[in-house]
Design a protein that fits this description.
This protein is an alpha/beta fold and 207 residues long. Strand 5 and strand 6 form a beta hairpin.
């Protein structure tokens, strides 16, 4: 398969240095992570609700709904922790089409992965800064995680059934997804869910 070199992407550490987090964001992230960890480990009897649209491709709309969720969180914080979904990757069965903010931050322009990484980082940071809520994102491409691992409180990794003809894509992503998911699962002991059919996966079954 022929590939054309476009440009070298900065490594995660370089991007984090170019776009550092404020002290307020760092402190909120630390506090929220501790609260969420307590739910997963059983130290808290609160529930976690991960909520929001499946694609965050309009910054203004995303921030609007998170501001609304923040008002709800103030009312139900004694019982439920809300984690907004800010999903910056959009899965495509055949690999064609709009792949989300991280690939194409401006839908009217050509894909630009570096601009998308910056946009993804800025969106998550702004959401925390303005609302006090850390969010969840879907790492359809696990390599993206290191660019925002200091911002996210929850990471979703979804298996997307691919049509025949996309075997290279499946081989690239699925083994990494499985390894990363197993590490997360061993740390949090949370229940795995089958995203396709919404069925619980037995915790003793191999993933």
């Amino acid at each position: 398969m022929a590939m054309n070199f476009v440009k070298k992407l900065p490594i995660p550490a370089e991007v984090k240095k170019m776009y550092p987090l404020s002290d307020r964001v760092v402190e909120i992230k630390k506090k929220r992570d501790a609260e969420i960890r307590d739910v997963f480990t059983g130290a808290s009897d609160k529930f976690i609700l991960i909520i929001g649209p499946c694609s965050a491709d309009n910054v203004d709309s995303v921030l609007d709904y998170i501001h609304r969720l923040a008002k709800i969180q103030d009312k139900i914080g004694d019982r439920i922790l809300l984690i907004p979904r800010i999903y910056t990757n959009k899965p495509r069965t055949t690999g064609e089409g709009y792949k989300g903010l991280v690939h194409q931050p401006d839908p009217e322009k050509k894909p630009d992965v570096f601009a998308g990484i910056v946009a993804m980082r800025k969106l998550h940071a702004t959401a925390i800064e303005e609302t006090g809520l850390t969010s969840a994102d879907e790492m359809l491409y696990p390599e993206n995680y290191r660019y925002v691992d200091d911002l996210l409180s929850y990471v979703a990794i979804r298996y997307v059934q691919l049509h025949q003809g996309s075997t290279e894509q499946a081989q690239l992503h699925l083994p990494r997804m499985g390894g990363l998911y197993r590490r997360q699962r061993s740390r949090t002991r949370r229940t795995a869910w089958c995203d396709q059919q919404a069925r619980p996966v037995h915790p003793k079954l191999p993933l």
